[in-house]
Write a structure and sequence with these properties.
Blueprint: E1 3-14, H1 16-19, E2 30-41, E3 44-48, H2 61-67, H3 75-81, E4 91-93, H4 99-102, E5 112-116, H5 117-124, H6 139-146, E6 153-156, E7 159-163, E8 166-170, E9 179-185, E10 188-192, H7 200-204, H8 215-226, E11 231-232, H9 239-243, E12 248-249
Parallel strand pairs: 3-4, 4-5, 5-6, 10-11
Antiparallel strand pairs: 1-2, 1-12, 2-3, 7-8, 8-9, 9-10
Length: 250
């Protein structure tokens, strides 16, 4: 069994039309957080997504004033507080290649890196550059993955057990190669949905996300999450920290 620790870089904000499908009329900015996840057990130290530093640098002064109650914290500082150095991470699982989920990959020099094959090929194809602008898809980390980390990069397809008790499941809704992660803990299965949902409300009110690649796959992912009877940990919902104030599961 594993223990999952919720790490939070801090607070920021997203357009309502990103978080909620436009047709539902939820257009006002939404306060979100930046969660990523440390998984420990069975002799392994695993990170799911990388967090992102300097959240304030992505916000306007007005957004900071209205939405941010404390300065953001770096991924490395959060890990060290949990007793983990970046070089201790032996497995890095990326749910998808949007900047706030992969930008700090270079911090982890010893990790095998698990990424969906469709996701990797999509962002590398020149014909897709109009859908992957540099502002949201920084190329520097791609270059690092294709060079320094090349021998540690593992491309997977579909549903794969990457370690005993830890699985990735291709869903392909939010992005072409998006994958969710399930982890076995003493409290039950934990599912880390990446960005197939942003908020618990996406599931509870049956409102799909507004930023998607394939709408049918988003809806299928939501149904899959509901059917798993699992502990769900969205990457961007502040409510995660209300439900799990210790920040640990298992």
């Amino acid at each position: 069994m594993y223990t999952v620790t919720i790490l939070n870089n801090g607070e920021w904000v997203a357009p309502g039309t990103v978080i909620y499908l436009h047709a539902f009329g939820r257009h006002d900015p939404v306060k979100i957080v930046q969660n990523f996840f440390l998984v420990q057990g069975r002799g392994h130290t695993i990170l799911i997504d990388t967090g992102i530093d300097n959240l304030e640098g992505y916000l306007t002064e007005e957004q900071i004033r209205r939405c941010v109650s404390a300065p953001s914290r770096t991924t490395e500082a959060l890990l060290r507080q949990a007793g983990v150095a970046p070089e201790d991470v032996d497995t890095l699982i990326l749910t998808h290649l949007h900047f706030d989920h992969y930008i700090n990959a270079r911090l982890f020099p010893n990790a095998r890196i698990i990424l969906n094959r469709r996701e990797w090929l999509y962002v590398l194809m020149p014909e897709n550059k109009r859908y992957a602008p540099r502002v949201g898809f920084p190329r520097e980390a791609f270059g690092w993955l294709a060079n320094e980390a090349w021998e540690r990069l593992e491309l997977v397809d579909g549903e794969v057990e990457v370690l005993p008790g830890i699985r990735v499941i291709w869903t392909g809704g939010h992005s072409p190669g998006h994958q969710m992660v399930t982890v076995e803990t003493a409290q039950g299965i934990v599912i880390i949905p990446g960005d197939e949902i942003y908020m618990y409300e996406n599931l509870e009110a049956d409102i799909p996300i507004g930023y998607y690649y394939n709408f049918e796959n988003v809806v299928a992912a939501m149904d899959l999450i509901r059917g798993m009877d699992a502990i769900v940990l969205p990457a961007h919902d502040p409510k995660v920290h209300e439900l799990y104030p210790s920040s640990q599961i298992g």
